[in-house]
């Protein structure tokens, strides 16, 4: 490890590896730090990703694809089920291999990648940042850089170190639990969503197939201090009712901010990307594609800033504007739709799914759904219509 770089990226998830690859490809001296001893492990993800965003950054490779998805199903707790084609082609990943491949590509582009290297703070000079304090293999070290990119995921601390407000309110947090299960019979080409507040209060359950009778089975639910049961309790109930012969190969729990992005993602000499910047979709919490996109945009702005010799917050805020141009409108809409949906009673939600399941899925349109919602729970339509009209 050298002591001086142009850019240091904290965290080798999808956001960090893409950011590091972008700056290294442009010839900048780039250091990519990962606190864990193995990039990509343990996996804390359902591993479903849309192809459209993915192919902007990496060409699909069978070595990190576990299943190809043809359809999504939406079920209520009574078992009514609507099956629809996905908006875009969807893949199930092997994130252990995928994340490692992204880091390898960053290294191939010239970035120095080190594991067991935990950032412990930023080195500050006046309002700006001079580098990162870190702990490498148990030894304290310092590394200097003109720009630090914080890609340290959902439990990130780097935005706070840089002076950004990054702690969401409880209502803007999902708590998640997931099992990788085997010995279960599921259609290997359909991603299942199960909706009902009795299954997952304020969230949803999923069954995402991974081939060979395996699937990621998980749920997200809102964080409610009055709630007695944990996400794992709800997941155990969901699993016991549906997969009596299952075996569990791994278990994860975690939190996901669904706030829409941080109000500020850039500071002097610093940008936050991916989950560190709350770039997960505010409705579904899917974040692989958006994180890669955030990493790429921040990387591009870092290259321009170093070329211009200006790493001030004012210059780096270009990154926030670029993000907003691509994702801002849809994220604001999804955030408000999620909050409107939370007010719908479970029986009304179930009724909407049941009515939609009775129609022909091949010809089902948004207009049909809107009509069903209008008849079943008009308040929801009244709340979401302004968002679709762009307000
Ligand atoms: C249960 C669950 C299911 C999910 N399912 C899906 C899904 O199906 N599809 C989807 O698109 N998204 C899903 N997501 C979200 C998705 O996993 C994240 O949005 C995505 O991984 C974000 O990428 P990232 O690079 O920002 O962060 P991460 O992938 O979390 O990477 C951050 C990296 O930073 C490292 N790090 C942290 N702190 C430091 C430090 N101080 N120093 C050095 N390194 C550090 C971490 O070890 C980690 O490797 C899910 C999330 C959860 C919790």
Structural topology:
Layout: E1 4-10, H1 14-25, E2 30-33, E3 48-50, H2 51-54, E4 65-69, E5 71-75, E6 81-84, E7 90-93, H3 95-108, E8 112-114, E9 117-125, E10 128-136, E11 139-150, H4 158-161, E12 173-182, E13 190-194, E14 204-209, E15 215-222, H5 231-242, E16 247-257, E17 266-267, E18 270-272, H6 288-308, H7 313-341, H8 346-357, H9 366-376, H10 378-388
The structure holds flavin-adenine dinucleotide (FAD).
Residues 10-16, 33-36, 44-49, 118-119, 151-154, 176, 178, 218, 252, 254, 256, 274-276, 280, 285-288, 291 line the site of flavin-adenine dinucleotide (FAD).
Describe this structure in words.
With 391 residues, the chain is α/β, with parallel strands linked by helices. The protein folds into three domains: 4-67 and 93-168 and 262-335, FAD/NAD(P)-binding domain; 170-257, D-Amino Acid Oxidase, subunit A, domain 2 (D-Amino Acid Oxidase, Chain A, domain 2, 2-Layer Sandwich); 338-388, no CATH class. Helix content is 33%, strand content 28%. It is built from ten helices and 18 strands. Strands 1, 2, 8, 9, 10, 11, 17 and 18 form an eight-stranded mixed beta sheet that branches. Strands 6-5-13-14-15-12-16 form a seven-stranded mixed beta sheet, sandwiched between helices. The chain has a three-stranded antiparallel beta sheet with strand order 3-7-4. α1 (14-25) packs parallel to α3, α1 (14-25) packs parallel to α6 (288-308) and α6 packs antiparallel against α7. The termini are far apart. The structure holds flavin-adenine dinucleotide. Flavin-adenine dinucleotide binds at residues 10-16, 33-36, 44-49, 118-119, 151-154, 176, 178, 218, 252, 254, 256, 274-276, 280, 285-288, 291.
